[in-house]
Amino acid sequence: MSAAMERYEAVIGLEVHAQLLTDSKLFCGCSTRFGASPNTQVCPVCLGMPGVLPALNEKAVLYAIKMALSVDCTVNRKSVFARKNYFYPDLPKGYQISQYDEPLAKEGSLEIDAGEGKKRVGITRVHMEEDAGKLLHGEGPAEEGFSFVDLNRTGVALIEIVSEPDIRTPDEAVAYLKSLRDILVYLEICDGNMQEGSLRCDGNVSIRPFGEAKLGVKAELKNMNSFKFLKDALAYEINRQTELVIGGKRVIQETRLFDPATGATRPMRTKEAAHDYRYFPEPDLLPLVVTEEEVEDLRKTLPELPARKKERFEKEYSISPYDSGVLVSSKRLADFYEQTVKRFNEPKTVANWVMGDFLRLLNENSKDVSESPVTPGKLAKLLSMIKEGAISGKIAKEVFEEMFKTGKDADAIVKGGGLTQISDEGELAGIVEGVIGKNPSEVEKYRAGKTNLLGFFVGEVMKLTKGRANPQLVSELIKKRLG
Fold it and tell me: Which of 143, 200, 234, 304 is most buried, judged by most C-beta within 10 A?
């Protein structure tokens, strides 16, 4: 980066759209199931037929309030739905029902790990709106040049979370989006699946000289659906705008798209201000009114959120920030870990197994924690068997694989396979004696001072016993024998 470019800082604000996990859409009873055949989950309401009336989904309201409370927003006692007018082929009504000057909630914040410490990002508002449809661009020879519209997604309940322009780097933006996603998933109000479009992000980015208070001209980056794309798009756009300013050129306020294939952004449309949408109150919906009591009742139902759980894990279980970060990345994974620790009170040992073999087998088998054949009780029993000396750590890994494959308990697998650890000193002494007798040159080197060869002798014994020998006892016998 040139010295000239280092004189400028980026100013970033994110608009995050999250689909809510309701069975029906925001204003009608159509299904929200993902993956249905195009245009099969629609009705006159979400298609905007003349004379139809929207009816607000109560569960969507409750979910939206939960999210607002989780990011310390003030929930407005009255909020108003508005029509956001624009033409696009995937918007059959010609407008989108959203909220504008009287949103559901406002003035919140979210603390993120900014790499060099914590940082608090302000949240301007959390409001509700309906989703638009989806355009599918033809790729086959017969479809080339055509675009098709699927309106199944039209009317699906969304919340939009708008941040203050407090973010300064692409890494901070990713940290912020990841933190929001974790909260949404913990609340069980959004699945956070960015590949399926359940969570999408628009970024507003501008640059200004360091120390300058006035904001620069911004560009809006639309519909980024992965953390990597968000980071790459912001990095490219910051560099593009900085080069324009240094070169004496003007940054144009516009909406841009990010192309992952080229790593570049390109113009989509010019956009001046919110009044382009001609917002006005939705005439077919009454203002949404919630009471203080309703808000407080919902506050009591909030789970322990990821940041607080991470902090508690580090303090209560004396595990590292890295370990706690992995374990709380999923509410189900965190619950699995805690339930195992309750049964086998060695938090670090449990963390190693959960983050290692358990997560590996889940990934290899494309399973969620809730689908695991190994329960916390079964894992705790396996770890107890290692601690008691019934099986070795090496054998335990083989047993765990079989547990995951079959769902059987550890003791049944150990008994059925004759895998019990050999801890009889007399039996092991004979095996040790045989290994020493077969390796005279290694014995000579060991006695000459190369004591790291102890691992070689232990390994040979473990091979002969197929991993069943008690490695600690074997090590002691070898040391004693070689004197």
Answer: 234
